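User: Hi! I have a protein structure encoded as tokens and I'd like to know what sequence might fold into it. I'm fairly new to this, so please keep things simple.
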């Protein structure tokens, strides 16, 4: 007698037609730590490193509004003598900043704390972070690794596998940092296409979960505008206001050509039917989704 197929949250989400728009995790930036061994479920906080080092880095990152991700190069490679760390900062004016360093023993990670207080370098190419955190959610590994393979084949110096970025059911998940662009439900075909378009200065609505600097209703409104009139540059749409009235938000957006100069989007949040939202979820819960009430250009 054959065993029933294992539950996979990303497959179930596609069957339900869950919309990933408006689901990007908010952050002012990221701390990246290359780690040679297996990633624990809880990521950086659970690494086998001295507690004082972990505590100092976590405290500094939290104070600056930065999320910590573990990273590794894709595929089998010789163990390097040193490992990378980075502080990537999103900047609303588009002058995103990066600072890279290395560590070979745990004390070297204290360089991250000092780097958080420094300005960093402007103009470096973005990095492509693909969630492959399989111990956190099997879908992240199953769907993320082919994406990492495809991106590493074209941009090996800029592609990293990374730990949990949120939204397991939208795997494969791709974070472009420090630009703060989250893509979900990407594949080995669609992820390189999205990156190529982004390298040409455009963001398309396809697979876009949202931008790191925006609230969920504002993220969803941006995706709606791009679905209607896009693609457009990362900073071509500015959210000037977002007003709530119970379950509805009125979001006003100022846009650069060729988009309409001004758009008003009225969006509504609603609770989805109860479902298992991750592969390891012990019970069903009700996720929050968004829909468009009206979209008006001015």
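Assistant: Happy to help. Inverse folding works backwards from shape to sequence: for each of the 298 positions I chose a residue that suits the local structure. Here it is:
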């Amino acid at each position: 007698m054959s065993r029933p197929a294992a539950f996979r949250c990303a497959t179930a989400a596609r069957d339900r037609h869950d919309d990933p728009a408006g689901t990007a995790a908010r952050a002012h930036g990221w701390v990246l730590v290359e780690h040679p061994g297996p990633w624990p479920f809880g990521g950086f906080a659970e690494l086998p490193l001295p507690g004082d080092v972990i505590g100092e880095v976590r405290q500094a990152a939290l104070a600056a509004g930065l999320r910590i991700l573990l990273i590794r190069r894709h595929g089998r490679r010789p163990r390097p003598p040193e490992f990378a760390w980075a502080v990537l900062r999103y900047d609303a004016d588009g002058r995103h900043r990066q600072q890279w360093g290395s560590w070979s023993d745990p004390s070297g990670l204290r360089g991250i704390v000092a780097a958080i207080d420094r300005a960093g370098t402007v103009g470096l190419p973005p990095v492509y972070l693909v969630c492959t955190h399989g111990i956190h959610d099997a879908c992240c590994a199953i769907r993320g690794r082919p994406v990492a393979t495809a991106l590493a084949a074209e941009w090996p110096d800029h592609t990293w596998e990374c730990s949990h970025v949120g939204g397991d059911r939208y795997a494969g998940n791709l974070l472009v940092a420090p630009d703060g662009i989250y893509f979900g439900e990407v594949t080995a075909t669609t992820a390189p296409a999205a990156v190529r378009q982004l390298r040409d200065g455009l963001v398309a609505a396809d697979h876009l979960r949202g931008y790191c600097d925006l609230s969920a209703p504002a993220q969803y409104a941006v995706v709606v505008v791009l679905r209607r009139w896009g693609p457009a540059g990362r900073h071509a749409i500015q959210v000037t206001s977002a007003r709530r009235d119970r379950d509805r938000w009125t979001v006003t957006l100022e846009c650069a050509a060729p988009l309409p100069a001004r758009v008003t989007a009225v969006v509504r949040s609603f609770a989805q039917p109860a479902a298992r939202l991750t592969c390891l979820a012990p019970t069903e819960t009700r996720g929050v989704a968004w829909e468009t009430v009206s979209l008006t250009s001015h």
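A useful reference point when you look it over: The CA atoms of residues 50 and 98 lie 26 Å apart. Feel free to ask if any position seems puzzling.
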